[in-house]
Amino acid sequence: MNKSPTKYPLASITDSTINGKTSGRSNNIHYKICGECGNEVQEAHTWEKLSGTGNYKSQTCTADGYQKYRCKVCGAIYTETLTRWGHSFTDLNGAVTQYTSCTANGVRYYTCSRCHTQGTNTGTYEYAWGHNMQWTHDNGSHWRDCSRCDYTDSWAGHLWSWTEFNGCRGPENNWTQDAHCDTCGARWDTGVACTGKHQYYLQGGFNPVSNSMISGDFRCNLCGRTNTFYFEPGKGQSYIEAGL
Fold it and tell me: How far apart are the first and last CA of the chain?
């Protein structure tokens, strides 16, 4: 009479060696033995991912993590190592080592894009602005100042030239000739009286002022001076009220 075969419990080989085969992901097996003949039957594990405390830990830039799996058939546990990522120093937003100026690039440290750890390498986050030079002057000389920093250059005396008015600004207005610097544009009232006459031309038409008087706006074509002239028809110019 044949005996009914005795079924032994399934055994995990996760932490042992069976028939010379070492457990691990390369030998994903469990086995059972026949009680009659001792025949060994090996089967591949059927893994399921476990979750919850103690079963999973994410890797970081500097530390390994792990994920545990359990065989649905025999209950064997397999722990997979999740290899650390390592830093990715690609973000240029660390501490500033050199601030941007007119002559120097702005420099700061790279940081890790994942954990924000600051690295040891630096990079340019902003290029030098360059000077923004503007002329400044006093009575005798001129120079250029940077509007952003204290840099100064081009110190020199003025190069004066007479300002020409083509005969305008005559002595009837007590105006004097002035000069300008060809380099910086500074102006100097020399006190020398001008000579000559304006060349006035009517701008628009005449306007009635009263029954006996009209007015007109005139502009000098040479210097741009404007005046309002009043006339009594048939008698010529009466007087000038205002001008620039």
Answer: 138
What does the alpha-carbon distance between residue 67 and residue 47 come to, in Å, rounded to a whole number? 12
CA angle 25, 61, 63 (to 5 degrees): 55
Collapsing DSSP to helix, strand or coil, 163 comes out as: coil
Kindly state the tokens that stand for 83.
């290899």
Name which of 154, 149, 120 is nearest 137 in CA terms.
154
Rounded Cα distance, 173 and 170, in Å: 6
Strands 106-112 and 118-126: antiparallel
Sign of CA dihedral 142, 143, 148, 151: negative
Those residues with Cβ within 8 angstroms of residue 89's Cβ, 6 or more apart along the chain or in another chain: 110, 111, 112, 113, 119, 121
Residue 83 three-state SS: coil
**Radius of gyration of the chain measured on its C-alpha atoms:** 49
Read off the tokens for 85. 């990522």
CA 75 to CA 81: how far, in whole Å?
A: 19
Could you list the pLDDT tens digit for every one of the 244 residues in the chain? 443 333 333 433 333 333 333 333 335 677 766 666 777 777 788 889 999 889 999 999 999 999 999 888 877 888 899 999 999 999 999 999 999 999 999 999 999 999 999 999 999 999 999 999 999 998 888 999 999 999 999 999 888 776 654 445 444 455 555 677 888 888 876 655 555 566 677 777 777 777 767 777 877 766 667 878 776 655 544 444 444 3
* Pick from 50, 43, 57, 53: nearest CA to 78: 50
